[in-house]
Write a structure and sequence with these properties.
- The protein is an alpha/beta fold.
- 29% of the residues lie in helices and 18% in strands.
- It has helices spanning 13-26, 45-52, 67-75, 96-106, 135-142, 145-148, and strands spanning 3-9, 32-39, 56-61, 82-86, 112-114, 177-180.
- It has a 6-stranded mixed β-sheet with strand order 3-2-1-4-6-5, with helices on both faces.
- Helix 1 (13-26) packs parallel to helix 2.
- The longest helix is centred in the N-terminal third of the chain and has 14 residues, at 13-26.
- The chain is globular and about 50 Å long.
- The relative contact order is 0.17.
Length: 187
């Protein structure tokens, strides 16, 4: 198994459906498995997944265990060489998973990979690359210095605005990512 995709859901049935449509297309040429861990939704999410997406492994919690524990429930069952934690409000392009798996295969020193994210209008999302929110970095963001000087190496550390958004860069924080699976769970 090459890729395990884990999606934690809580009452976002319609977003989840769109996400799973895109995930189904993106895994069509990859040896992959998909988990949806539902945190006690009351909107019919689990039944929708069972009815429309038979390829998905559903873990239906009777209480809301929280995001970390829900991810860990699927991680311990996963068999993939790589693990992708995906939010249910995400739509992926058909070649996204192939690209990230190929990148990881070609960069064995990488422990994780974040992606270039865009919003519904095609605009780059600066949270695609983030620096560690140290007290100084948080200060620059809270007091607007990072917005005033986004390309500054000093003030632009939160969203790493000084890095080229169209190139591969090392970053401290991932928003959407694929990991090498080590089966270590915390939370």
């Amino acid at each position: 198994m090459k890729l395990s995709v884990v999606i934690v859901n809580y009452n976002v049935k319609y977003f989840l459906e769109q996400c799973l449509i895109s995930v189904g297309k993106a895994i069509s040429n990859i040896d992959a498995e998909v988990f949806v861990v539902d945190n006690n939704s009351v909107d019919g999410s689990c039944q929708m997944v069972r009815d429309k997406f038979p390829f998905v492994n559903v873990i239906e919690n009777k209480i809301n265990t929280g995001f970390s524990k829900a991810n860990n429930q699927a991680i311990v069952q996963s068999k993939g060489e790589y693990l992708l934690l995906l939010n249910p409000d995400t739509v992926v392009e058909e070649d996204t998973f192939k690209k990230v798996v190929d990148f990881m295969d070609n960069h064995p020193q990488a422990g994780g990979l974040g992606v270039h994210m865009i919003d519904g209008n095609g605009k780059f999302l600066p949270e695609s690359k983030r620096g560690l929110p140290t007290p100084a970095v948080a200060f620059y963001k809270i007091f607007g210095l990072s917005a005033l000087f986004p390309k500054s190496k000093l003030f632009g550390q939160y969203h790493l605005g000084f890095l080229d958004k169209n190139k591969t860069n090392e970053v401290d924080v991932f928003q959407w990512c694929i990991y090498v699976v080590e089966k270590i769970c915390v939370g």
